[in-house]
Each structure stands twice: as structure tokens, then as C-alpha cells.
Design brief:
Elements lengths: L6 H13 L6 H9 L4 H17 L3 H12 L6 H17 L6 H6 L2 H10 L3 H10 L3 H12 L4
Helix pairs in contact: 1-3, 3-5, 4-5, 5-7, 7-9, 8-9
Amino acid sequence: MSDSPSEHTRFKQYLRDLEHVADHSELAVVGAVLHDPDQTMAVSAVLQHINRRAGGLDGDQLAAWARSMTALFDGHDLLLRRLRDWTTLKAINAGQPLDAVALTDATNWLQQAVAETTTSSAALTILAESGRTRRIRNTATTRARRPSR
């Protein structure tokens, strides 16, 4: 029997550590989490951190933060993809030019996030017609029909 805490205990601790990490310590803490032998659990904890942290940043802050995280995520395609998804989501929601093909080819996560949050009628129209899942298409269709606020 091992003296190290279970992956469930480590996961909860990682989430607490990442939630309260100071900016100056963030790279070290994220790096330490990613060195956990249970990579599935470690990546899941960092993915939750990305979603929490990126959601609270504006586009410029997110771009700078994503650049600082990218080197740590080498070899972790899911984490790199989620950083790109967040950057794209913030760009769409800021009204930057929309690439219809890229949105159609985007991950389910990004398509759903855009369908749920954007006010871009162009993005909603694209997703209502070409969203990857029924849920994405329905969400986009419903939101596209709502009057602008």
C-alpha cells in the first residue's frame, strides 16, 4: 500500500491550489500538477484551471496569459487546443472578423461556448446551420431568434 494520497485527494488539492495560486507562482504550480504520474487527472485539473482563469480575462490579458502557459503545455494537445479555443471565443465575442470555415471546423467545446455566449448574429447563423451537434445547432437557433438587447 502506498503512502501517497489517492488521485482523488490529489485532484481536489490541485484544484484548491490552482484556484488560489498567486500570479507569480502560477507557472510553477501548473508545472508541478502536470508532473503528476496520473496524467489524466493532472490534465483534467489544469483544464479546469484554464477554463476558470481564461473566463475572467479580457482578450489582451488572455493572449499574454496563454503565451506564458504554452511552453508548459508542450505535449498536451488538449490543453493547447483549449487555450486556442478560449482565444477564439474571446475574439468572436469582441466582434473580430469571423472565419466561418474555422468556426464550422472548431471543437464541440468552442462551438457550444460560442452558441451560448456570443451576440454575433453571423456566428449564431453559422452554428445554427452547421454546428456539429444537435445541441449546438438548437442553442444557436434559439439565441439567433432572440431580439438583440
